[in-house]
Amino acid sequence: MSDVRRARAALSRLVEPGDKAVHALVGEVGPVEAVERICAGRGTYARFGARVRTLDTGRDLATAAKVGARLVVPGDDEWPERLDDLPTPPFCLWVRGPVPLGEALGRSVAVVGARIASSYGEQLAAELAAGLATRGWTVVSGAAFGIDAAAHRGALAVDGATVAMLASGVDRVYPAAHSRLLARIAETGAVVSEVAPGCAPMKSRFLQRNRLIAAATRGTVVVEAGLRSGSRNTVTHASELARPVGAVPGPVTSMSSAGCHQEIRDGRATLVTSADEVIDLVGDLGQDACEPARGPVAAGDALLPRDAAVLEALPYRGGLDLERVVALTTLPPLIVRAALTRLELEGLAETDGTTWRKRRSRTAHAVVQ
Amino acid sequence: MSDVRRARAALSRLVEPGDKAVHALVGEVGPVEAVERICAGRGTYARFGARVRTLDTGRDLATAAKVGARLVVPGDDEWPERLDDLPTPPFCLWVRGPVPLGEALGRSVAVVGARIASSYGEQLAAELAAGLATRGWTVVSGAAFGIDAAAHRGALAVDGATVAMLASGVDRVYPAAHSRLLARIAETGAVVSEVAPGCAPMKSRFLQRNRLIAAATRGTVVVEAGLRSGSRNTVTHASELARPVGAVPGPVTSMSSAGCHQEIRDGRATLVTSADEVIDLVGDLGQDACEPARGPVAAGDALLPRDAAVLEALPYRGGLDLERVVALTTLPPLIVRAALTRLELEGLAETDGTTWRKRRSRTAHAVVQ
What we know:
2 copies of one chain form a homodimer. With 369 residues, the first copy, chain A, is of the alpha/beta class. Chain A has 3 domains: 1-55, no CATH class; 56-282, Rossmann fold (3-Layer(aba) Sandwich); 305-365, Orthogonal Bundle (Arc Repressor Mutant, subunit A), CATH 1.10.10. Chain A has helices spanning 3-14, 20-40, 49-54, 57-66, 101-106, 119-134, 147-157, 179-188, 203-216, 231-240, 258-265, 275-282, 305-313, 322-329, 333-345, 362-365; strands at residues 69-72, 93-96, 108-112, 138-141, 162-165, 190-193, 219-222, 245-247, 270-271, 320-321, 349-351, 355-358. A 9-stranded mixed beta sheet of chain A has the order 1-2-6-5-4-3-7-8-9, sandwiched between helices. The longest helix of chain A is centred in the first third of the chain and has 21 residues, at 20-40. Chains A and B meet through helix 3, helix 9, helix 11, strand 9 and helix 13 of A and helix 3, helix 11, strand 9, helix 13 and helix 14 of B.
């Protein structure tokens, strides 16, 4: 293993994600020299002393190997280039799972939300994720309870690609109840972390993990979020990175949707109701654009207003002459005559030569779409 | 009664709402001369012949008087000036009810929606209307089944002002099942129409009635609407008049909310979840603005990120010295020391002089708001 890879692995153990000072140092002198200075422990780097004393990158690499995790560093084929949009991109990523990470994240959407979710939210998250996965999009989430887990499961259910970004080392199972879920994700997709194997999940690491989820994906969808849900932190990161954000609405009586509604009101998120609308939001213009939602189209829907008024005046039985239709609609006779002709051509009206009536037809009431 | 009033009453019987040609004529020669020309029936005005033959304005005025309705024309004190924003304002209004119409509509919101509404939608419409009415806003709707009726009822339930705009004459009860509802509105608010007493409700009149609702109010809120709901027509009118439009979200699994979601996605409507948010949307800036929705605030919420990281590192029992906190957080000692001082001052941490720990306090977990 190259010195650079080893140094980056060491940094992921020594330094908290998002540490601007060390990031600037790495930018200045490179990772190998940066690790040397941190380990020397002089001046501002004394704060890393306790971690330097227990640093054992060989052990971390061995732990990774034991759980089938590999080290991915900037410059590797599978490095997700989108992460370089971050002010403080990860020093490296630890990755468990068969998918080439960069490729999988190329067309990816973050599906996130509250841990305390309603069954409405969980079902939607699963459906949305399944829909996205079916259309070839990778579903990225945080493997937490609630919306996160539902999203991963939705993608897995259709044999889709899904990536879990953890706040702890990739060898750790958090929450413990998701042991089987994480194993399944690692079998077919990827379990990813920027902190070294063995590292514990901590609040600050969850917040930094959220920035990874936002940065690694083309856009983020919040399915359910209370006003104080951590998933709104992911939205903040996505907004800062100018990634599109979608939010799924729900009943206004449900506090689980209040955060989503607030994001939409604040203009930080676009209201989305389906996988197609999510892809419309995050996908490439043209290639991925979806049709706006429409109700069923009935024959006669596209009529000019005056033609519609004339049609409305006609009876199904008997018939009305031109003068009578003029009287009912108060439209000029020329307009009524032209409207009757158009309605006849479209099969909506019929005439005996003197009077007109509505034409009963199967298509007139059929739902075209 | 002046000739002008009588002429406007006649126009409301002879001419369909929104007839641009007659509107232009009235603008040119005034209502009296316009009625004379229409009654002469020459040229383009022949189309009104059938109605001219049965015109009896005295009878219409008598019918109005019988149901306690009055004629309101432009220039009257209670003429709602906002209607003059319309390209084709009504020739007059027929009004049943004790409220001075212009004043009641001064602070008014249209609350509209689907006739086929869910119980979620109806309950919300009633709550929203009650909230608006309680805050002194007049609730305007169309007296239809579903959302409209729920909105009127919500306002009536808190003795608030509510105005029903009809597509038929004010003496007609449509739908028939709303006889009691319309009577209650007429007792305390106002039942209004721009077509003469006796006129039947027709599809084209419903569409024109929707333009009145949009024009007469400061803004429109759609509570529930399918993709093809007529209430979206009201939204179109409101948008064209540059009146603010709000839409209430709902479950994406409910087709009754699909039209609302689409309006929000199209940027024609702002997502609203409460009466306060509606008033924020349609009210005067400053005077009526509402606070954004917030979750409960816990002590420590406003902490600097580094203070929060330090607080997270502290135990409840025992204590950690400065060096240990530095080791756990990898923050520079100066920053850790400053953070500990701030946390102590805020009552979130305590110290024995050498070590620090979290302070258990009632306020630390109390919900402040």
